[in-house]
Design goal:
The complex is a heterodimer of chains A (114) and B (117). With 114 residues, chain A is mainly beta. Helices cover 0% and strands 50% of the residues of chain A. In chain A, strands 2, 4, 5, 6, 9, 10 and 11 form a seven-stranded mixed sheet that branches. In chain A, a hairpin with a 3-residue loop joins β4 and β5. Chain A starts with a strand and ends with a strand. The mean pLDDT of chain A is 94. Chain B contains no helices and twelve strands. Chain B is globular, with a radius of gyration of 14 Å. The chains are: A mainly beta (114), B mainly beta (117). Chains A and B meet through β4 and β5 of A and β6 and β10 of B.
Chain lengths: 114, 117
């Protein structure tokens, strides 16, 4: 089954404790992105990657890091989480052959930083 | 700059009523793409429809229909004979031309739709 998976799905942590949210897709997609969803703001892009070893900032990159060492994986790293990073996070992927820019979303990771 | 506005934060109707969710967008591009997603209480994003800027035909899928009007920069979504299972947050989103380098979807704020039995 074609899918984007994220782990963990739910995470409660404390300020300053480094964490990684993993994202993996099995569709051989070139493009991957991370979004965060906040009430009243919709979803906003954090980082994106156009291919292995190619990443760039989205609209709200502060406090996040990413890496793309393999095509299928695109982890999101919070080195020192803060309460304002409490949010619902979505990973997405798409193929460069899709001219619509339609993105396939993972199930979401609900992060709470205390 | 791209922008999507969903002015209706919350809508509540009684089952079987028709309901329209508004979406207004801004873009300077002539080539762009519009999407609607549904987010049920479980939290995942469910793709509903996509449209490109050159196709202004309205679309109907069962109880769902979409009205795309370039003249008013709107892409509204109507649910006919609403059902409790339609209760969700609905997002409208815009993408400029990925061939020209667009790498993201720009989302509206979302509309929380509640269908009461």
């Amino acid at each position: 089954e074609a899918q984007v998976t994220q782990n963990p799905r739910y995470l409660i942590t404390v300020t300053g404790k480094k964490l990684t949210v993993t994202c993996s897709q099995n569709m051989n997609h070139e493009y991957m992105s991370w979004y965060r969803q906040d009430p009243g703001l919709g979803l906003r892009q954090i980082y994106y990657s156009m291919n292995v070893e190619v990443t760039d900032k989205g609209d709200v990159p502060e406090g996040y890091k990413v890496s793309r060492k393999e095509k299928r994986n695109f982890p999101l790293i919070l080195e020192s989480p803060s309460p304002n990073q409490t949010s619902l996070y979505f990973c997405a992927s798409r193929t460069r052959r899709d001219t619509y820019n339609e993105q396939f979303f993972g199930p979401g990771t609900r992060l709470t930083v205390l | 700059a791209q922008k999507v506005t969903q002015a209706q934060t919350e809508i509540s109707v009684v089952e079987k009523e028709d309901v329209t969710l508004d979406c207004v967008y801004e873009t300077r591009d002539t080539t762009y793409y519009l999407f609607w997603y549904k987010q049920p209480p479980s939290g995942e994003l469910v793709f509903l429809i996509r449209r490109n800027s050159f196709d202004e035909q309205n679309e109907i899928s069962g109880r769902y229909s979409w009205n795309f009007q370039k003249s008013t920069s709107s892409f509204n979504f109507t649910i006919t004979a609403s059902q409790v299972v339609d209760s969700a947050v609905y997002f409208c989103a815009l993408s400029e031309d990925p061939v020209q380098g667009a790498q993201k979807l720009v989302f509206g704020q979302g509309t929380r739709l509640t269908i009461n039995p």
